[in-house]
Amino acid sequence: MSQAEQRVLQMRLVVEAADYEQAVAFYRDVLGAPEELAVDGPDGERVTILQMGRATLELSNPAQVAMIDEIEVGRRVAPRLRVAFEVADADGVTQELVSGGAELIAPPTVTPWNSLNSRLEAPAALQISLFEELAPATTDTRHPATVPVEF
């Protein structure tokens, strides 16, 4: 299907942030998402739209969510909605986000599908996963190995 034929041209996740300034500073300045648009309304309304790269919608059944939680965290912790960001350096970005105000739930861990994933509780009450795609697996990856990272 060509882009002209696509019905959905953009996915935008809208998040209500009680501490708007903290959320904008974290996602724009710490995570590094470029600001696309910021608008202030006459009655205190504020919105900032950040570019987050390519967007996908991942639909998972409860068994899949539980399995990912077990791999990334070791126990069931995911809320109904979780946001995942692909990054080039999961270790480094995880450390930066923790320093910038996120709470570490689980450090970067190698998954059975050979990505390096971490889990954080971030501003605006979002649970996020960071993932770095590693080189294609050349060994048996049915049992994930934890990569220790100091924070």
UniProtKB/TrEMBL annotation:
Record domain VOC: where: 7-133
Gene3D superfamilies: 2,3-Dihydroxybiphenyl 1,2-Dioxygenase, domain 1 (3.10.180.10)
InterPro entries membership: Glyas_Bleomycin-R_OHBP_Dase, Glyas_Fos-R_dOase_dom, VOC_core
One Pfam short name: Glyoxalase
Name this polypeptide is given: VOC family protein
Lineage, opening ranks: Bacteria, Bacillati, Actinomycetota, Actinomycetes, Propionibacteriales
